[in-house]
Description:
Elements lengths: L1 H4 L4 H7 L12 E2 L2 H10 L7 E5 L5 H8 L4 E6 L5 H10 L4 E5 L7 H4 L5 E6 L5 H9 L10 E7 H8 L9 H9 E9 L4 E2 L6 E8 L8 H13 L5 H4 L5 H7 L13 H10 L1
Helix pairs in contact: 3-4, 9-13, 10-13
The chain binds S-adenosylmethionine (SAM).
Amino acid sequence: MAALDGLPPLxxxxxxxxxxxRKALGQNFLLDLNLTQKVARTAGALDDATVFExxxxxxxxxxxxxxxxxxxxxxxxxxxxxLPALAEIADHYPGRLEVIEGDALKxxxxxxxxxxxxxxxxxxxxxxxxxxxxxxxxxKAWPPFWQSLTLMFQKEVGExxxxxxxxxxxxxxxVLAGWRTHSRMAFDIPPQAFTPPPKVTSTVVHLxxxxxxxxxxxxxxxxxTQAAFGQRRKMLRQSLKPIGGESLxxxxxxxxxxxxxxxxxxxxxxxxxSL
Length: 275
Ligand code: SAM
């Protein structure tokens, strides 16, 4: 893509700006331009979309998103060392890249969202990725302000997001994602594609809102999933004891001898609605 967008190769950018990767910030940079384009393409057409990106770093994925025609990118980056490199990209695409220096966990993306379609695309820092996803899954109003999430996670986290009942990876994340979205794992990225390479394989997960999720209180669903999966090997009559146990299960017509991982999203919603 260096040739396509006329910007210098990412390795040169990293060297010139002294962007040695910091583990504490989850910095594993993706420098393979074919892969950054593949991630951006997973989000579908970008022409009329505003894209939120978390953690642009030296800007590899940002450049792919802009080269694919996103109307605007709003990127939130915590590491001030990356800002000069990102400013070069902003100069190259006048008016199309806005960089916010800050912590994505403390950023109110909904308030920043402009009119029109919003897509979120990110190679997420591993230490905050799950929490960001949960924040995007749990706004009070639904459908949410975003049209799709295209996010890179450790593969094991991706498996938990797309898991459904009777799958070993099924848990709180699978219930939340299964309740409010349609999700799929798009493709894996091996460790050696990153600089420096992480210990594990990564995966890109694509989520779109389920327009009509079963009506259910977020707080109650959280209570039920936390209790049930907190002791996932135990029968529900035991694990749900603190929130009603056997009587709650009988009321909802669920066999108290079942275990958390066998319950469908619909059954979790039923329990939450009976609390
Ligand atoms: N997007 C770049 C890429 O694909 O090569 C970098 C991805 S790297 C895995 C994660 C990025 O998130 C780093 O640039 C890091 O500084 C940034 N980051 C870490 N924690 C953050 C936070 N809480 N809020 C915003 N950015 C954060």
